[in-house]
Design goal:
Length: 319
């Protein structure tokens, strides 16, 4: 199941984030974390995937145990501390059957700190390989089953409400990307504006499925990480989003769609609407200033947007 890749993925695989290191955490916070881990820390390996600057490291302790810990300062990194706080709340509510590392403990004080189950594994290969994609889609099907309906203690926004801002950039996009063709842009915008007709549902949807939020464990099973901002939406949403990177790197995702139970019976127009929604978001966000703590974020967004546009154009017969 292969096709010609659209273009090489522009961000360095596994080296997209600039994060706080263990030695730069306040001494009282390091001491607290060591108490929770049960042994002094002898080494810390920063996880340089992702696009945020919060602390995220695998800690190896004197007793040989390993721990995955995330932390952000409420004062200096409020947005990321809020994100970690939400992640702790969502992880604590996930049913046992969801393939995700578990929350073991957390602190919410002047720092938000999460102690998360350590998983010995790796990120999916880039370029994407069919086996890793199959493992991820298997796990997303398990997750959708376990998360329909969502856990009752979580008051989730609906996908219809949460995705409303994603269409806001279309006016600017039409002006900036006239090279894509005014008629095609108008058709894509009209599709995007229909997003509320297709994204709703009764499943807890992760909404941020990409390779740096996935771990492939020693048994080849995919675990999904970073449950910061899930919503209540369509059960197929995450499985479809998982195909953007693989499609851009040469996998025949149309064949994948035909083989997957969450995707094969979805109205094809719903996929076009979703792609148009992504195009409006990614090709608008990529024009914003580059965050100093995430130098590759805009390149990632631009590539994702171009992949979605190429896929949409093919599906609509524009190319």
């Amino acid at each position: 199941m292969s096709r010609a890749p659209l273009a090489p993925y522009p961000a360095p695989h596994g080296r997209t984030a600039r994060r706080l290191e263990w030695g730069f955490l306040p001494p009282h916070l390091r001491a607290y974390i060591e108490r929770r881990c049960g042994s002094p820390v002898v080494s810390a390996t920063s996880q340089t995937t992702g696009f945020t600057p919060g602390f995220a490291s695998v800690l190896v302790c004197e007793d040989g145990s390993r721990h995955f810990v995330k932390a952000a300062s409420v004062k200096a990194q409020r947005m990321f501390a809020d994100s970690y706080r939400e992640e702790a709340r969502k992880l604590a509510a996930l049913p046992a059957g969801v393939p995700a590392p578990r929350l073991l403990w957390h602190l919410d004080d002047d720092w938000v700190v999460l102690g998360i189950e350590y998983v010995a594994g790796r990120a999916p290969h880039r370029p994407w390989r069919a086996a890793d994609l199959d493992a991820l889609l298997d796990s997303l099907e398990v997750a959708a089953d376990a998360l329909t309906p969502p856990p009752g203690e979580l008051a989730l926004d609906t996908a219809e409400a949460d995705f409303a801002p994603l269409v806001a950039g279309w006016t600017a996009l039409r002006e900036r990307r006239a090279d894509l063709g005014p008629a095609r842009l108008a058709e894509a915008e009209a599709l995007a504006l229909r997003y509320a007709d297709v994204v709703g549902g009764e499943t807890l949807v992760h909404t941020d499925i990409r390779s740096d939020n996935v771990i492939i464990d020693a048994d080849g099973r995919a675990l999904v990480c970073d449950w910061n901002w899930p919503v209540r939406g369509a059960a197929w949403f995450d499985s479809f989003a998982a195909l953007i990177g693989p499609r851009g790197e040469g996998i025949d995702v149309d064949a994948v769609i035909a083989s997957r139970r969450l995707l094969r019976h979805v109205d094809p127009e719903a996929f076009d609407i979703n792609l148009a929604l992504y195009v409006g978001y990614f090709l608008t966000q990529c024009e914003l200033p580059v965050p100093p703590t995430s130098p590759h974020l805009r390149d990632h967004q631009r590539w994702q947007g171009e992949v979605c546009w190429d896929w949409l154009a093919e599906r609509r017969g524009w190319s």
